[in-house]
Design a protein that fits this description.
This protein is mostly helical. 75% of the residues lie in helices and 0% in strands. It has two domains: 8-69 and 314-473, no CATH class; 70-312, no CATH class.
């Protein structure tokens, strides 16, 4: 059976049905997003059959989508293990204890944002930063009486800024590589949009933090938390060496999986030899998470978590989201939607905003930040050539529209990871992820007014024109 031409409005139908279903499920019924995503995948499958795709092709697209999510799933499993073992080993408790002792509530949001920036910039990974420093930061912030979504927003803003600007970051290298831009030229060009967004986020968090001075907290609440931590755990500055060791391994360019695995082993050993728990208890902690019975409700809510089982919801959501994205791509619907976006480009001034919006749309459709870089960069490369724009504009646009916005989509692997790791729903923390919200908006604004837009050099223009003509004639 030959495949029929699919109109753009038909290709958009699964997405529209999914979004409407998501609105009712999450907002009205306060349910999980799994079913709307499956509904969207079911709708896309029916449309694909009608337009000439075989069931074997559709089924293969499911598995292709799932395959793309496997690296994220493995990381999620390790994060569950690391949270459980670090809580059981007293590492998280020690981080919270010393954090409460050193950091003032009024400056906590700014402090945790800057700390996450430095760590992510050093190791090139927002996910590893949030899985280590971020988890401890959530505990400290909540203990200070700061709302969870606000704390998560500061952690995310710092981690993604550091990741975006780090020469060690996989997304940064991917964007520069696929756009054919030297790495440090790409990073330098991103400063124009990244620094204003970062400064704006810092100012907002500084103003918010002023409302959380020590005097505004309940008398003795921090002291009670610190006393409770000492009752349940052996608190020691030596335990802080565990996260430092993991960060050190990543700095030495050890891949994330073995580095995080080493962190799990250290946490497991700390629970046995420092906290004095039985081996069986420590093994159970790795799967079921840490269990603590405390008179202090804050300590119980902070530390009863982690383990492999805590990540099953997140992993199942990742799989379902990638099934939806897989069938959209496999049945050609994504290509038709992207063609529709490309047709909107009528001038050089419109090209960069369209690229940014396409990257964000890909995050929604394909649920994976790497794809939100790859597809738009490939799709618009010749158009940047046509309008004689330097490729640095392209590499920056896919980072501004793709990398930082992945955490704003509840079913994207970025949003799923953050919600599972920090324990805050995506729609709750998204309004406070100021850096991630501001970056694409600033980038679009600068493009419209022509600020920091680099034209191709004269000698490049000739090659550009020739390449474009060859592309069109071919």
């Amino acid at each position: 059976m030959s495949k029929k031409h699919m109109p753009v409005f038909v290709a958009l139908l699964p997405l529209l049905i999914m979004i409407v279903g998501m609105g009712f499920t999450i907002i009205q019924f306060e349910g999980a997003p799994h079913i709307p995503l499956l509904l969207g995948a079911f709708t896309a499958s029916i449309i694909a059959l009608v337009f000439g795709y075989s069931w074997n092709e559709i089924e293969k697209s499911f598995y292709t989508g799932i395959h793309k999510s496997l690296p994220a799933i493995v990381i999620l499993l390790l994060v569950g293990l690391i949270i459980g073992s670090w809580i059981g080993g007293g590492i998280v408790g020690s981080l919270i204890y010393y954090g409460l002792e050193i950091i003032s509530p009024a400056y906590f949001l700014v402090s945790i944002m800057v700390l996450c920036t430095v760590v992510a910039l050093s190791i090139g990974s927002s996910w590893s930063t949030m899985a280590t420093i971020g988890v401890a930061g959530m505990g400290i912030g909540i203990s200070m009486g700061i709302p969870e979504p606000m704390v998560a927003g500061a952690i995310i803003s710092g981690a993604y800024m550091g990741d975006k600007m780090s020469p060690l970051s996989d997304t940064t290298n991917l964007a520069s590589g696929i756009a054919d831009v030297p790495l440090f030229q790409h990073i330098k060009h991103m400063l124009y949009t990244t620094i204003p967004a970062y400064v704006l986020a810092l100012v907002i968090f500084f103003q918010m933090g002023r409302g959380f001075s020590s005097s505004s907290l309940n008398g003795g609440s921090i002291e009670k938390i610190m006393e409770g931590l000492q009752q349940h755990f052996v608190i020691s500055p030596w335990l802080l060496l565990v996260p430092l060791a993991v960060i050190g391994l990543v700095l030495l360019k050890i891949p994330a999986l073995p580095a995080l695995s080493f962190g799990v082993i250290l946490g497991f050993l700390c629970q046995i030899f420092i906290q004095g728990d039985l081996v069986g208890t420590s093994v159970i902690t790795l799967y079921d998470g840490y269990s603590i019975q405390s008179d202090n409700e804050m300590i119980s809510s902070l530390l009863n978590r982690g383990g492999l089982s805590s990540m099953m919801y997140t992993i199942s959501l990742t799989i379902v989201a990638m099934i939806f994205g897989g069938v959209l791509e496999g049945a050609g619907m994504l290509e038709r939607m992207m063609d529709g976006m490309a047709s909107l480009v009528k001038s050089a001034k419109a090209l960069i905003p369209t690229t940014i919006l396409t990257s964000f749309s890909t995050n929604i459709l394909m649920a994976e930040q790497y794809i939100s870089i790859i597809i738009p960069a490939r799709m618009y490369a010749s158009t940047y050539t046509k309008y004689q724009l330097d490729r640095r504009n392209l590499s920056r646009a896919v980072e501004d529209g793709g990398t930082v916005t992945s955490v704003l989509v509840p079913w994207n692997t970025g949003g799923i990871f953050v919600a599972g790791t920090l324990g805050v729903p995506t729609l709750a923390y998204a309004p406070y992820a100021f850096f991630n919200l501001a970056t694409p908006l600033i980038s679009i604004f600068f493009a419209l007014i022509g600020f920091s837009i680099i034209k191709a050099k004269l000698d490049e223009k000739k090659g550009v024109s020739e390449n474009y003509k060859q592309t069109k004639s071919g």
